Amino acid sequence: MYSISSVLIGCLIIFYIIFLWKNWKYVKFSWKVNGFFLPVLPFIGNTYISLLTGKKINPISLAEIAHKIVGLPVSFWFGHQYNYLTSDLNDAKIILNHPKCYDKAAIYDSLRYYFGDGLILAPYDIWKLHRRHFLKSFKPKMLKTYYAIQYRQSCNLVQELKHEKCLENIYEYFNTYSFTSFFVGTLGLAEDEMFADMGRIGQIVSEVQELLNELILNPVVPAKIWSKWFPAGKAVDKLINEGTTYAKEIIKKKKEQHKDIISFVENNNEVSLMDLLLTVDNQILSDTEIFNELMLLTVASTDTTGFTLGSCFILLAIYPDIQEKVYKEIIDTLADSYEDITNLKYTEAVLWETLRLFPPGPFIGRKCLADIDLGGKVLPAGASCLISAYHIHRDAANWVEPLKFDPARFLPENQSKIKPYSFLGFSAGPRDCIGKGLSMMQMKTTVANVVRNFKITTDYKSIGELQLESCVTMRVVNISNCYFEPRKYVA
């Protein structure tokens, strides 16, 4: 009779023989990279490192541990998938521009079970066609159209803040605001078309995202099994079904506006994103397909804008001298028209600096479809590369006093000093963020109207007090109060 320990040892030997046979090219490459000595355990890979620290699995905690102990770049096995985690600028330049690295990293594969090949997740060939289609909604002329709507939304926000005064969770508050602005502005819904349960859609988007973090960061359970047998998976299915019902109502309203929606989109230069969503590849998408696109685009839009606005107001509260400079620029510029907004150079620099310190997407993940020469080493086909924008943005080799909040870095006269690929707030390369111009316009409009009307303070005393975690997007763990005191004089 064999003892249990003998059987387990035998199983481990068989596992490692098979593992090495299937993954030899990655194992061989990992010898050239930090972290090669970390044991790879069956099913979970190296994720145990995060658990040993008492923290839940999340990329920021793993990257921080790796950065402190062995330094980046580092080899990391998420389950049995090899990942190359790097903060090297040359790596970033090559990976983000290489035609064989346009596909998303394997860590996002589980999301395709729910959302298919939407713009955010699509393989390059599909993404290229869809991006060209959606670009019609992000042209400069459309930004002017969106501005009037965003300005009204920011005015509504100002009125709400006069009653709120203290925000206990500034991130949740501005995520909700960004969500409403996205639906009213970018999607082309008139404000009188908003229905009573619009807030519920925002809750669904937020809840689905939080639950899916559990799936994305689980290296063991496939999405199909997770969906059918795990409570969180069942909850996601229920929420998506509920969200699809609301989406059908929105879709119905838009279809009623244009009898021949395909002809309307083809023959008009200024078209809302919702109209474009209805007609991808000259076909009317199903309600489920439209909801999938809506979910992904909404998360991408509201998370970037909401998180950055929350972080920006906290930073302005921590640094009242910078807040005063923003206020002075706004008063001097008036900031009521689209042209005024484009002239707010210091306010824009504040937002860029916020994105540097707190990138909403701390990692950019790409899959290598061929061997990629990184100069000195060749990353093998099939590997995933995770570029840490978070560490690039906080590296003293790239930025003087990287933890200092210094918007002057991004003023026009200083931008030539910024190293290429040392700032990845909206990613970079051909597959960068399609809505970066719109997002910046929304944020500048909001900051201008809020700072003009309120003096902002917070219980935070320094940047170091904000504790961060991430999955696909960044989160602040320890939320503290933020106060909005109406100014005595408003221009």
Automatic annotation (TrEMBL):
SUPFAM superfamilies: Cytochrome P450
Classification via InterPro entries: Cyt_P450, Cyt_P450_CS, Cyt_P450_E_grp-I, Cyt_P450_sf, Cytochrome_P450_Monoox
Segments traversing the membrane: 6-24, 36-54
Binding positions (heme): C433
GO CC annotations, alphabetized: endoplasmic reticulum membrane
Cofactor (UniProt): heme
Pfam families, per the entry: p450
Family that this chain belongs to: Belongs to the cytochrome P450 family.
Protein name: Cytochrome P450
